[in-house]
Write a structure and sequence with these properties.
Radius of gyration: 39 Å
Low-confidence stretches: 1-7, 179-187
CATH superfamily of the largest domain: MetI-like
Shape: elongated
Largest sheet: 5 strands, antiparallel
Number of strands: 9
Oligomer: single chain
Strand content: 5-15%
CATH architecture of the largest domain: Orthogonal Bundle
Structural class: alpha+beta
Number of domains: 2
Strand order of the largest sheet: 2-3-9-6-7
Distance between the termini: 54 Å
Order of helices and strands: HHHHHHHEEEEHEEEEEHHHHHHH
Helix content: 40-55%
CATH topology of the largest domain: MetI-like fold
């Protein structure tokens, strides 16, 4: 009787129609979910899966796509010097660019926290991300131009060089054919040496006055302080222990004048270095005045030659060949840093703002300085964020194309090529070999996939 009552008091088991209804609702929910996901799956299949499968299949055929060659394209790919250079340059990009960007982003993120106008500073550094790679490539192609009048970097390099070392004022100057003479203002002939210097062919002794005429300098290129050389040439009288002279432009504006003679309208060449040479050794050196005059005093008896060193005629410093074969890859990496430094800084800064402040304050109370806090606490706590930034940048630099293709000039395109540009050049840029290009694309995919898998796994771990 008791068992019967307990059994009657227990709740009734769910009926079969309720279970069926729940199954129908779950099935309907799955169908709705698939319908929502279907457009994304179709796009993924059309834009990612199909191109990948097609490229893998195309890489097994020859250039025309009619003859099956198996792995021949992959074998030939690693025999091609241009492809090997592209692999080497890609490795340089993968090692250098993400490392520098992560380091710069970390340093800037830490420093920005101590800046009053931190938001404005972050905005300023992040702005290049809004510039397309095409526009950035054009900007840096101009900035790296070899002509200092166009390239801002070479203009800065020339300015700094000339500030410390100076430059020649007469790079186009040269001597006339040897003109004999002596007193009366006529100068001895100048002989050009192997190093570009000019030396008097006649022996000069103390008490001699000489005039050294040069041509090849346009009057408009003369220094502003240049004065007529004729008064200095006519009034100079040398002492018994000195050699005097004048260096002048042996050219009379408007025509006329006598070669080898200092005429009244001819200008001196100021600022030119002049040396007195005896037995092949420089014994005295001076610089010409505004009227081109110079003198050596305190000379011993004997014969001397007057020399105009090659530095007077050296071509002007034109700067650095940023886009030459040696520096083209570092130069392009520099432009990439300009674009992506703000990205790294913002991501690392977001991680930095989430750090527990009590750990930092406890370290300061224990006597740790800022460098110790940065090295022992900040960097270890930011390690997951730094890893994500680094791996993301590795994936990005493996696919870099625009900057390399736009910035590198045609003659050095092969020296700067990476896998992405090599794939395009082989397929469409003149090679017209889609089989080899597809093999390069598959190689690039195989290099990118491990980094992508690593990043996805780290995201999943962080979500847990």
């Amino acid at each position: 009787m008791t068992a019967t009552l307990v059994k009657e008091a227990s709740p009734p088991a769910p009926s079969h129609p309720d279970r069926a209804r729940r199954r129908r609702l779950r099935r309907r929910g799955r169908i709705v979910a698939v319908l929502f996901v279907l457009p994304a799956l179709l796009l993924l299949g059309a834009l990612v899966v199909y191109p990948v499968l097609f490229s893998v299949g195309r890489s097994l055929f020859d250039a025309s796509g009619t003859r099956f060659v198996g792995g021949e394209n992959y074998t030939e790919m690693f025999r091609d010097p241009a492809t090997l250079k592209a692999v080497r340059n890609t490795a340089i990009w993968v090692v250098i660019a993400p490392t520098l960007l992560t380091g710069l982003g970390l340093i800037l993120a830490v420093l920005v926290e101590k800046v009053r106008w931190a938001t404005a500073f972050k905005l300023l550094l992040f702005m290049p991300m809004a510039v397309s790679f095409l526009a950035a490539g054009i900007i840096f192609r101009l900035a790296y131009d070899d002509d200092p009048d166009k390239g801002v970097l070479n203009a800065a390099a020339v300015t700094v060089h000339d500030a410390f070392k100076g430059s020649s004022s007469y790079p186009t100057a040269r001597a006339r054919e040897a003109v004999g003479g002596g007193g009366g203002g006529a100068g001895p002939g100048l002989t050009k040496e192997a190093d570009g210097a000019y030396t008097t062919g006649a022996d000069l002794s103390p008490g001699t006055v000489t005039a050294l005429g040069l041509v090849g300098v346009a009057p408009k290129d003369l220094p502003d302080d240049a004065a007529p050389a004729h008064p200095a040439a006519t009034r100079q009288e040398a002492g018994v222990d000195e050699v005097r002279g004048v260096v002048y432009l042996d050219f009379t504006p408007g025509g006329g004048g006598e070669p080898g003679v200092v005429d009244r309208q001819e200008s001196g060449l100021p600022g030119m270095t002049v040396e007195a040479v005896r037995d092949g050794r420089t014994v005295a050196s001076t610089t010409t005045a505004a009227d081109g005059s110079f003198r050596f005093t305190g000379l011993d008896g004997g014969s001397y030659a007057v020399k105009l060193p090659a530095a007077n005629f050296a071509p002007p410093y034109d700067g650095i060949s940023w886009l030459g074969p040696t520096l083209v890859t570092p130069a392009i990496i520099g432009s990439y840093l300009w674009i992506w430094t703000g990205f790294a800084m913002v991501l690392i800064g977001a991680g930095l703002s989430a750090l527990p402040r009590d750990a930092l304050e406890a370290a300061r109370m224990d006597g740790a300085n800022e460098w110790q806090i940065f090295r022992r606490i900040t960097v270890p706590l930011l390690a997951p964020v730094l890893t994500v930034v680094f791996v993301t940048l590795v994936i990005n630099v493996m696919k870099v194309f625009d900057l390399v293709y736009i910035i590198a000039p045609g003659p050095v395109q092969e020296d700067a090529t990476v896998l992405a540009t090599q794939m395009w050049l082989v397929s469409f840029g003149g090679g017209n070999d889609q089989g080899m290009g597809s093999a390069l694309g598959v190689l690039l995919l195989l290099l990118v996939v491990p980094a992508m898998v690593f990043n996805v796994r780290r995201f999943r771990r962080s979500q847990r």
